[in-house]
Specification:
The protein is an alpha/beta fold. Helix content is about 30%, strand content about 30%. The longest helix is centred in the middle third of the chain and has 13 residues, at about 175-185.
């Protein structure tokens, strides 16, 4: 594989401060993040994107060190991925592994993900919670919209749960390319994928909408999601910090949604919503 990738390391030990940084750079659609007790390591194929993330991080009062961006050959990233990726298990409901791992025999549904350049491995709390929420829904015969699909991990799980028609979008063309590879790995190639924004999609009615993105995109897209959710449908949101809940629930109430339930994992939340009485 030719070309380069870029890495930005941010030495910040506080989990709260790490989450603040992640929330502030969420609009950049960062390709991948490693998070541990010593700091954040952020990857992207664009040095310009990491330059903006670097400037954002350096402007924060709790960060007192200068940051630098490292250029890496793509093959180094792939090797690092294989060395660091560990399977994710969501109870006995589902598991996510790479193709070089042994099968996960203890779960009902096994997803194989080999992403090179995109989010969506299940490691992040928000993806994990989305899968937890999906366990409680009936997907049999449903029409599903995966908004901000990344590697299509949620769309793939929806297919395994019996969804009949699945459409996933992401504005990042590289994410969609990776998603196509992932649906082939999982024999779920009836999933439709497109690189676009929500306003470019037809206004169709979906029984279940899955939206694991970030606060600003969710705020901006509330009306569009309302148009696309079937009358008795369910909307599941994540990509949200605990402190995002009031502004999200207020905005979604304005356009006609009501909150059904919430789950937490660390500093992150996932909300399940349906149409209200408006």
């Amino acid at each position: 594989m030719e070309g380069f990738y870029y890495k930005l390391y941010i030495p910040v030990e506080s989990e709260e401060h790490q989450e603040i940084i992640l929330a502030m750079i969420a609009d950049e659609e960062i390709s991948a993040v490693e998070q541990d007790d010593s700091g954040l390591t952020i990857y992207h194929e664009s040095a310009e994107v990491l330059d903006r993330a670097k400037s954002t991080a350096e402007s924060l009062p709790f960060l007192d060190s200068e940051l630098s961006i490292e250029q890496l050959p793509l093959e180094n990233w792939n090797k690092k991925w294989e060395e660091s990726f560990q399977p994710i298990i969501v109870g006995n409901f589902c598991g996510v592994r790479a193709s070089f791992h042994e099968p996960l025999e203890e779960v009902k549904h096994e997803i194989i993900i080999d992403p090179e350049l995109a989010f969506g491995t299940g490691h992040h709390e928000t993806t994990y919670m989305m899968m937890q929420q999906m366990e409680l829904l009936d997907f049999a015969g449903t029409k599903v919209f995966d908004f901000g699909c990344g590697t299509a991990i949620l769309a793939i799980l929806a297919h395994m749960l019996g969804a009949e028609d699945i459409y996933g979008i992401d504005y990042d063309e590289q994410a969609i390319k990776c998603a196509h590879d992932c649906i082939q790995l999982n024999d779920t190639d009836t999933i439709r994928l497109e690189a676009c924004v929500i306003t470019d999609t037809p206004v169709e009615q979906y029984d279940i909408i899955l939206a694991n993105i970030n606060r600003q995109v969710l705020l901006d897209s509330a009306e569009e999601l309302n148009k696309r959710l079937a009358p008795e449908g369910v909307l599941v949101l994540s990509g949200l910090l605990v402190e995002d809940e009031p502004i999200i629930t207020e905005r979604y109430d304005q356009v006609g949604f009501e909150k059904v339930s919430k789950i937490n994992k660390g500093e992150w939340i996932s909300l399940k919503m349906k149409h209200g009485r408006k």
